[in-house]
């Protein structure tokens, strides 16, 4: 186990990140703890934000934390389908995925998964791909017939995940699973929630293109309980695409994850500010 005294923070931390004093204060809390990070939105298509994200993960690793990454890829999938003249249809935020579409989805996500693994290796971080073709850990049942090859996780092979973590590698999970050996697409937030619950992770961070949860006056809410989050959904303060995200947060917070945070991936070092500063970087949902 790494101790705070063994870490040379000056060498590791970025100058525009949290202060050394703040990091020292929080480091003991997170050393050797499991942290699941779902990266999505602009982080996946903006090269500068992607580079910062990879850098922050490598910093977490150097500080002695145990990150697991679950990545999205919706915007890349949209671009590829457009190129191929395959039309996308959505039902309540979930992509209708037929036989043609699922092949494209799988190819795009596997290619992107490899990019993340290679980028981490370039930062001297060992990482391992988890996809439907390699080290698969997620098994699913179909979500709804009209959605086609869209699944919800029914089983996570924790032993494969644990083995990767124990060999000091970062698991990089594509949001797909298998059913009868067929690949199924999974909403990346839901996939990340399922993995975080199984790992009983200390934190689940959902990187998005929003600041976090806003109240009725459009002010950022820094912390809420699952019950208050449900109330905000019922009162339509939380609406649209934020609803499935918040439902994932509520489910994870009620099932062994100590805290779930929606953070703004467009802000530099938002992961580090969330974990290692007093003010955090988004909305924390916990009991």
Quaternary class: single chain
Report the span from N to C terminus. 29 Å
User: Radius of gyration in whole Å, from Cα?
Assistant: 18 Å
Number of strands: 14
Please mark out the parts with pLDDT under 50 across 5 or more consecutive residues, or reply none.
Answer: none
**Strand percent estimate:** 15-25%
Mean pLDDT: 91
Helix content: 25-40%
Q: What series of H and E elements makes up the topology? A: HHEHEHEEHEEEHEEEHEEHHEHE
By secondary-structure content and strand pairing, the structural class works out as: alpha/beta
* DSSP summary: helix tally: 10
Q: What is the molecular shape?
A: globular
Largest sheet: 8 strands, mixed
* Strands ordered across the widest β-sheet: 5-8-2-1-11-13-14-12
Describe the structure.
- This protein is an alpha/beta fold and 287 residues long.
- Helices cover 40% and strands 21% of the residues.
- The protein contains 10 helices and 14 strands.
- The chain has helices at residues 9-12, 20-30, 47-62, 74-83, 99-122, 158-166, 188-199, 226-234, 242-253, 270-276, and strands spanning 34-39, 66-71, 90-91, 94-95, 127-130, 138-142, 151-156, 170-173, 176-179, 182-185, 203-208, 223-224, 259-264, 282-285.
- It has an 8-stranded mixed β-sheet, sandwiched between helices. A two-stranded antiparallel sheet has the order 3-4. The chain has a two-stranded antiparallel ribbon with strand order 6-7.
- A hairpin with an 8-residue loop joins strand 6 and strand 7 (151-156).
- It starts with 8 loop residues before the first helix and ends with a strand.
- The mean pLDDT is 91.
């Amino acid at each position: 186990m790494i101790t705070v005294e063994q870490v040379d923070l000056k060498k590791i931390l970025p100058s525009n990140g949290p202060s050394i004093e703040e990091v020292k204060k929080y480091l003991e809390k997170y050393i050797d703890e499991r942290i699941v990070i779902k990266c999505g939105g602009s982080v996946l298509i903006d090269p500068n934000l992607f580079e910062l994200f990879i850098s922050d993960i490598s910093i977490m690793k150097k500080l002695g934390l145990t990150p697991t990454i679950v990545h999205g890829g919706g915007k890349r999938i949209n671009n590829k389908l457009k190129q191929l003249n395959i039309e996308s249809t959505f039902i309540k935020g979930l992509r209708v995925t037929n036989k043609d579409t699922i092949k494209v989805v799988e190819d795009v996500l596997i290619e992107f998964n490899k990019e993340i693994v290679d980028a981490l290796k370039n930062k001297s971080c060992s990482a391992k791909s988890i996809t439907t073709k390699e080290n698969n850990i997620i098994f699913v049942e179909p979500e709804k017939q009209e959605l086609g090859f869209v699944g919800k996780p029914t089983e996570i092979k924790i032993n494969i995940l644990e083995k990767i973590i124990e060999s000091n590698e970062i698991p990089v999970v594509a949001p797909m699973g298998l059913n009868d050996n067929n690949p199924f697409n999974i909403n990346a937030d839901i996939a990340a929630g399922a993995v975080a619950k199984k790992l009983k992770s200390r934190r689940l961070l959902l990187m998005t293109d929003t600041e976090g949860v806003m109240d009725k006056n459009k002010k950022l809410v820094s912390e809420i309980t699952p019950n208050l989050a449900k109330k905000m959904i019922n009162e339509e303060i939380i609406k649209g695409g934020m609803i499935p995200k918040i439902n994932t947060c509520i489910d994870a917070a009620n099932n062994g994850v100590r805290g779930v945070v929606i953070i703004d991936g467009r802000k530099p070092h938002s992961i580090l500010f969330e974990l290692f500063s007093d003010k955090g970087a988004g909305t924390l949902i916990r009991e």
